[in-house]
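Honest question from a wet-lab person: if I give you the sequences of every part of a complex, can you actually get the arrangement of the whole thing, not just the pieces? Trying it with mine:
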Amino acid sequence: SQKIEQNSEALNIQEGKTATLTCNYTNYSPAYLQWYRQDPGRGPVFLLLIRENEKEKRKERLKVTFDTTLKQSLFHITASQPADSATYLCALPYNQGGKLIFGQGTELSVKP
Amino acid sequence: NAGVMQNPRHLVRRRGQEARLRCSPMKGHSHVYWYRQLPEEGLKFMVYLQKENIIDESGMPKERFSAEFPKEGPSILRIQQVVRGDSAAYFCASSLSGRSETQYFGPGTRLLVL
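Yes, you can. This is the full assembly:
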């Protein structure tokens, strides 16, 4: 069955540094991959979507890469800020549209 | 444009009672998804509904759980005879169409079963 794995340990970095989060998947060839942010007690918020034919996508301080050979996506936050502290979730579609399969999430903590 | 609305935000039930969770999708969205997030676990898909139809219920427990999305009104996730293991955060998401890639999530309902 499809499986998604994210860094299971929390990531602690210093303000201003680049945070890099990893999402690996197996037994699957998704047409796209998404990243969401979730704050404690809140619902996930969509951040970025990258398609299988795109190597890299950027949005402000966020950058996502998608390597379909390695079956891996990397999520980067440059010039990180304490306000970036949250849990970041990787999600893949099970089919075209329809349900999403989420990774466990990586908790990011940015210290001032 | 209001986002996805869920109520109640917190719900406390005793074992054996029924829990009803409501979800109003974003305006113009006719596709609704329910996910459950157990403590220390990731989001798990439960059910996908379109107006008056269940499209995919592969993640729904076979017993005690049901969902509907009537022609008028919010989507309802119903849990009968709740047990302590049902304690979790239940999130609803909506999308414009079934082929929409992005789902917009509500704030969730936190169910506590005593």
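Two things worth pointing out. The mean pLDDT of chain B is 93. The CA atoms of residues 30 and 50 of chain B lie 6 Å apart.
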